[in-house]
Write a structure and sequence with these properties.
This protein is 46% helix and 15% strand. By secondary structure, it is α/β, with parallel strands linked by helices.
Length: 281
């Protein structure tokens, strides 16, 4: 039985996920593998590097720093989250990512991107800094309309949440049969068709298959939620999610709100600890 951890994205809603995973690490809960999408990849990789508290720490520290994220970065670089600062300066110098521990930890870590030319998900086992630095993480978290396309190994990539926001089926397909799924929306949430479709059609007119994927995104997401509910009822999945919508925006600048979302994640994990231990036993 391979035990998996599946981490949805959601930009700064990922602070909820960080709170959950920090509590699980503090209690010695281990998985054979994890897969993260977008913010789930950017924050979830700290599980493999065993860096409790890192995600909330650097996001609170830099959320109001114009070098990190914001309109200034978007106008000057084409990226809401500044590539040089967020994916190089911070993880290499200002709040260093522990690549040695990441490499030595046998837990597999996968992430999901979207190929803009095919509109299909790209699943990548990320093995550390030698694997194109942080570019795979950056590609997975490059939100449409506010990020430049990331090119790696001849592929043009954007946010994995566009094509497979909750990759439970993927993890099951590679042998993970006992999965904890961390979602960042409450149980009654269902995605609606994005109102940004006219802008998406204009901005990505050279990539018609990506546009088709975005037109169906809400349907694919809601179908996945239904599948997760079936798997949860069958006992092969444990879902952890907030009880209410989280008090953060996608590019939240208020450190107190980031802390609040993180604390909700911690409290939710604490309530679920017995269930998690029982489920994974």
């Amino acid at each position: 039985m391979k035990k998996g951890l599946i981490l949805e994205g959601g930009a700064m809603r990922g602070m909820f996920t960080a709170g959950v995973t920090d509590v699980m690490m503090e209690h010695g809960i281990e998985f054979d593998g994890a897969v993260g999408v977008s913010a789930g990849a950017a924050f979830g990789c700290n599980y493999k590097s065993r860096q409790i508290g890192r995600s909330i720490r650097y996001n609170k520290r830099f959320c109001n720093d114009p070098r990190y994220c914001g309109l200034r970065s978007l106008l000057l670089t084409g990226n809401l989250f500044n590539t040089d600062f967020a994916y190089r300066e911070v993880p290499l110098h200002l709040d260093a990512f522990d690549f040695d521990t990441y490499r030595e930890n046998p837990m597999e870590f996968y992430l999901v991107c979207t190929d803009v030319e095919t509109g299909e998900p790209v699943y990548r086992r990320y093995d550390g800094y030698h694997d194109h630095g942080f570019d795979w993480i950056r590609a997975s978290a490059s939100m449409p309309l506010v990020s430049r396309i990331v090119e790696i190994e001849g592929q043009k990539l954007l946010d994995g949440g566009m094509s497979d926001a909750i990759p439970l089926r993927f993890f099951q397909s590679i042998g993970y049969t006992r999965n904890v799924v961390i979602l960042t929306q409450p149980a009654d949430y269902r995605k609606k068709k994005t109102k940004a479709l006219p802008l998406i059609r204009l901005m990505y007119r050279r990539y018609p298959k990506l546009v088709q994927t975005m037109q169906r995104r809400h349907e694919m997401y809601n179908t996945t939620l239904n599948y997760i509910a079936e798997q949860e009822a069958a006992g092969s999945v444990l879902v952890i999610r907030p009880a209410e919508p989280l008090p953060v925006s996608r590019a939240e600048k208020n450190p107190d709100k980031l802390q609040a979302a993180y604390d909700i994640g911690r409290a939710t994990a604490a309530e679920q600890l017995e269930n998690i231990h029982r489920f994974l036993a």
